[in-house]
């Protein structure tokens, strides 16, 4: 994570451990592949079977300003 990304995150609402795991997984995937993962790919990365559970985390990340 770059210094600019770290500074930007300071102003955002804190994440739970699970939300942080989802966020970091998305960012890592995007750095490696150049595009964001699908919900099913996120499920595999974080070890969750339910796409609706991941979707809920994505909505929270969006509301807190971590993703658009």
UniProtKB/TrEMBL annotation:
<dbReference type="GO" id="GO:0006508">
    <property type="term" value="P:proteolysis"/>
</dbReference>
<dbReference type="InterPro" id="IPR036390">
    <property type="entry name" value="WH_DNA-bd_sf"/>
</dbReference>
<dbReference type="GO" id="GO:0004252">
    <property type="term" value="F:serine-type endopeptidase activity"/>
</dbReference>
<protein>
    <submittedName>
        <fullName>LexA repressor</fullName>
    </submittedName>
</protein>
<dbReference type="InterPro" id="IPR050077">
    <property type="entry name" value="LexA_repressor"/>
</dbReference>
<dbReference type="Pfam" id="PF01726">
    <property type="entry name" value="LexA_DNA_bind"/>
</dbReference>
<dbReference type="InterPro" id="IPR036388">
    <property type="entry name" value="WH-like_DNA-bd_sf"/>
</dbReference>
<dbReference type="InterPro" id="IPR006199">
    <property type="entry name" value="LexA_DNA-bd_dom"/>
</dbReference>
<feature type="domain" description="LexA repressor DNA-binding">
    <location>
        <begin position="14"/>
        <end position="67"/>
    </location>
</feature>
């Amino acid at each position: 994570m770059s210094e600019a990304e770290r500074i930007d995150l300071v102003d955002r609402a804190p994440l739970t451990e699970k939300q942080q795991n989802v966020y970091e997984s998305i960012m890592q995937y995007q750095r490696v592949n150049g595009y964001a993962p699908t919900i099913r790919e996120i499920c595999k990365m974080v070890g969750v079977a339910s796409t609706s559970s991941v979707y809920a985390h994505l909505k929270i990340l969006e509301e807190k300003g971590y993703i658009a």
